[in-house]
Amino acid sequence: MVIGVFALIILRLFYIQVIDGSYKDRADDNVLRYEVQYPPRGEVYDRNGEFLVQSKDVYDLMVVPRDVTPFDTAMLCGIVGVPIEKFRAELQKAERYSRRRASVVLKQLPKEVKVKLEERSFPGFYTVYRTIRSYPRKIAGNLLGYVSEVDERAIARDSYYRSGDYIGKSGIELAYENVLRGDKGVKVNLVDVHGIVKGSYQNGIYDTLAVPGTAITCSIDARLQALGEELLAGKVGSIVAIEPATGEILVMASSPTYDPDELVGRESGNNYMKLLRNPRSPLFNRAVMSRYPPGSTFKIVNGLIGLQEGVLRPQDTYPCHRGYTIGRGVKCHEHWSPLNLIDAVQTSCNAYFCYVLRNILDNPKYGSVKRGFDVWADYVRSFGYGRKLDSDFLDELNGYVPSSEFYDDRYNGRWNSLTVISLSIGQGELGCTPLQMANLAATVANRGHYFIPHVVKRIHDRDSLDARFYEPHFTKVESKYFDPIVEGMYRAVHKPGGTASIARVDGLDICGKTGTAQNPHGADHSTFMCFAPRNNPKIAVSVYVENGRFGATVAAPIASLIVEQYLTDTITRPQLVDYVKNMQIAYPYYDRKKTK
Amino acid sequence: MTGRRQNSLGIGSVDWSSVLIYVALVVIGWLNIYAAVYDESHASIFDVSQRYGMQMIWIGVSAFVAIAILLIDDKYYHMLAYPFYWGAILMLIAVLFVGKEVHGAKSWIVLGPVALQPTELVKFTTALALARYMSTYTFSIHRFSSIVRMFAIIVLPALIIMLQNDTGSAMVYGAFLFVLYREGFNGWIYVALIMALLLFIFSFLLTPEALLALLVLACVVSEGISNGRWRSKIIYVASVALSTLVLYFGLNLLLHGRLTVYASLLISVLLSLVLVVVYAYRQRLRNVYMYVGLFLASLLFTSTIDYVFNEVLQVHQQKRILDTLGLESDLKGWGYNVNQSKIAIGSGGFFGKGFLGGTQTKFNFVPEQSTDFIFCTVGEEWGFLGTLIVTSLFALLILRLMKMGERQQEPFGRIYCYSVAAIFFFHVMVNIGMTIGLMPVIGIPLPFFSYGGSSLVAFTILFFVAVKLDAGKRESLIDQ
Lengths: 596, 480
Hints:
The complex is a heterodimer of chains A (596) and B (480). Chain A is of the alpha+beta class and 596 residues long. Chain A contains 22 helices and 20 strands.
C-alpha cells in the first residue's frame, strides 16, 4: 500500500516534470516580461546633406496605477502642460485597463519635461523613449509621407509590428519603411506574481539592443523643392524635375501641400482629418497619382513614332490654316504654313501632328487601323506611359494609354484614325502623371532612353540602390530621330514664333515644349516640359498647373525658374517670380465641392 | 526490566538509519524554506527575522526535544498516555475559546512571541492513548464495546478540531484506520470504504444512467464470480436492457417523452429485483441476497452524495474536489494554487533550476509556499531528481517505522509505531498529492518541510518516541 502510493506519486512526478514539457513554457509565461526597446527612426537628408526629416527624441509617460503614491497632481500637470481634468481621466483609463500593468498616460513629451519629471520623481510613473519625426524645412509633405501608429491590418501582415508601434504610412516613409524603422530590441525581465520587475533574465543574455534605423539621402534638392512649392502656392498642380543622366528626382512638388509637422504629435489625428476634408485634397500627391491629359507636350512622342516608323521625314511639310479640316477637324492657332517637323514643334501646330498620327495609324504595312493603333500604343508605352514607372515611390499610379480593344468596345468596332485624332495632340483618352511627363523630358534630353526616376540617392549602410535604377531603358525610337525634335524644342524657346519664349534664359539653352490641355473641369490646364542645357542636359522638368490656361502662361515660367535656380543657383528675374506668385487661378471645380 | 537500562542512553540500540533519514529531511526542508522565502535583502540563512531563521530555532528546539526523549525512560509513555490525552483534549477545548483565528481556522494559542498549534501535538497524544487502550488485556478488536471506545478515542479530538474549522487536520485522524487494519479490524469495512470512495468519484465523472448501469454490471459480475452460471447472468443483463428500451421508447409514446433513460433503467432494474429474489430463493443462493442488499445500499449512497456535497461541504471544499477530478477549471480562482504549484514542479524538469533558481518560487507565484506548498520548491529547484529523493526518503522512513512496529514485542509499541507511520503516510500522501493535482487541496503540512514550529516539534516528538520505544525493546533483547 505504502509502496503503491509512493510509486504513483513518483510516476506522476516523472510525468509532469520530465515528460510533459508544457509546464516549463507556462512558468516562463508567468515570469518573463518582454520590454521593447524602440530604435530611433532613420533620418532623411536631401542631396546636399541638408535635413529633410529629423528624428526627435520624445518620451511617453507611463503609469502603473498600483505603484502610484499620493502626489501633487497640479505640479505634475504643470510640468507636462496638460489640464488636470484630462490627466485624471487618463489615469482612470489606465486604472480600468490594469492596476498592475503599465499604460501610456501621455505621449511624446519633450526631453526637458522628462528631465523635470525625473528630478521630482513621481512613484508609479516612468518614461519610455520613442522618436518622432520633425521637418526642419517643412517641405515635401506628400513626398516624405508621414508616420503613425500601426493599424490592425499591418500587424496582421507583418509580425514585426505590435500595437503602439509606429509605421510609415505614405511617401518615402512607406516606401523605405524597412530601412528607416531599424529593429526593435527587447529586454527580458523577470517579474514577480504582482508584475513587478525583479531583474534581468539570465543577466541579459537574451536581451537585444535596438538597432537604429538607417539614414537615407534623398535625391531631392531641398532648396529647389522649396522654390517649387513656393511658386505653386495657391495653385493646383505639380512640378517634377529629374536629373536625366541618373533618373534622380530633384523636385517632386504637389500643390496644395501641407506642413508635414502637422501630422506629428498629439494634434496629428485632428490635422489629418482636416486635410482629408480639404476639397483641394492636399494629401493627394498629384505628381505621381493624377491622370492628366498631356496636351501638346505629347506631340513630341507622335513625331518620334512617325520618324521611327518611316511615315514622317523631318523635311515633310503640311499645310495648316487654323486647323486640320478633315472629319470633325482640329483647330489650330495662327502661324506660317506650310511647315516642316521642326517648325511644327516650334509653333506647336495641331494640324501637322494630325497628319502624322493618321499616317502612323493608317500605315498600309499593318493592314488595319486596329493593328496600326496597337503598334502606336506599344511605342507610347515604351516611353513609360500607361504604366507605373517602377520608381521607388509606392504611391505612383499608372496613368492611362487606351488600347484598340477600348475603342472597339466604345464604337462597336466601327472606328478609324479620324475617330481618335485627338490623341495626336495629347488629348482624348490619354492620361499621364506629371512624373511620366517629366520622364519624357528626361528621355528626350537623353535622346532616347531614361533611367527609372527615383527619390532616394543613397541608403547609408548600402553601397548601391536596387539594380533597376542603374539600367537605361530604351524607347522604341532610335536616338538619331531625336535631333529634329530637340531642335524644334530649342526653337520653341529661343526663336520668334516659338510658343515658350517666356522660358528663355540666356546661356542655359533650355529646350521646351508647351501644352495647353483641354479638360472637363474648367479652363485649360497649363503644362510645360523642358530640359537644359541642350547638350549634356542636367535637368529635365515637367510643370503642370491645373486651369492655368496656356502652357506659356504659368507652367513655362515656373519651369524656367526651376531650371535657372538649379543650373545657376540664382534667380535673375524676380519680376517673373512675383508674376507667378501673384497669379490668381480660380478652381470652381474643387471649391464647389466644399459647399455641397 | 533491569535497573541498568534506566540510566543508559543506549546509543547502540537506536535505529540510526531512521534518525539519519530524519536529519536529512529536516535539513533539506530548511534549505527549501530558505529558497521559498529568499529575498536578497535578507540573504543570511540565519536571519531570525525571516522564516528560515525562525525555522532554524525550531530545529534547535526539536534537537533538544529529540535528545530529551532519547534520555527519558520509555515506560512513562505507557503510564502517561491517558493524562496526556485528556490534557491535550482540554487544551483543544481551551483553544476553541481563547484561540486565534488564522486562515479561517481557530487553532492557534498565542503565548508572547510564539504561536502554538495544539492540534499538532494531539496527534501524538491520541496515538499514545490509542496504543495504550488497544494494548489492554480486555480489548478485543472484534468486540463491539471495544470498537466503540477505540473509535471514541480517535473521533473525540477530530470532532473538536472540526469545531475549530480545521477540517484538514481533522481528516488526519482517518490515518488511524491503517493502524486498525494492521490490528485485524474487519476487512469488509475497508472494502466498503473503498467502494464508497469509488462511487463518490464515479458519481461526478459519469452520468446517472451510466453510473446505474455500471453498478448493475458490477453486482452481476461479482455475483457471477462467486456463483458461476454465466448464462443466466447474460440473459438477465439482456432482458434488463431490453425492458429499458421497451420502457423508454414504448411508454414514452404515452408519456410524451417525459420518461428519461435513467428512469426507464431504474424502473426495469427495480422490477427485476423481484425476479432476482425469486431466483435466489429457488436456487438457494444465499449470497445473492447480499448482492441485492449491496446494490440497494449503493443506490442509496449515491443518491445522498449530491446532498452531502452541496449542503454539508463548504464552497471551497466543493471547488477543490471538482478541480482535482478535472471537472472544473478556474485557473485564476479556486484552481490557482494547484495550477501554479503544478507549473512550479513541472517546470523543474529532470535536474531542476538549481538552488534559489526557481522563478515560480522566488517570485511568489505559488501561495503558501513555505508552508503547505513547500514541495513546489523542491520540485522546481531540484527537479525530478530532488522529488525522487525526497519522496523516497519519506517512503523509507515510513517503512522503517512499520518495521520498528513489527519488531516490538508488545502491542503498545507496535500500535504506536504504526500510528506514527500512518500519520506520516497520510500527511505525505495528501500534501504531495495536492501539489501535483492528485488530491484535492487539504491544508496539512508536509512533515519536517513545511514551515512551522508546532508541526516540526510535534512530528519530531512522534518520531523520536517511536525510535525510543524501538531502542528500548532492542536493548532489552540485547540484555537478555
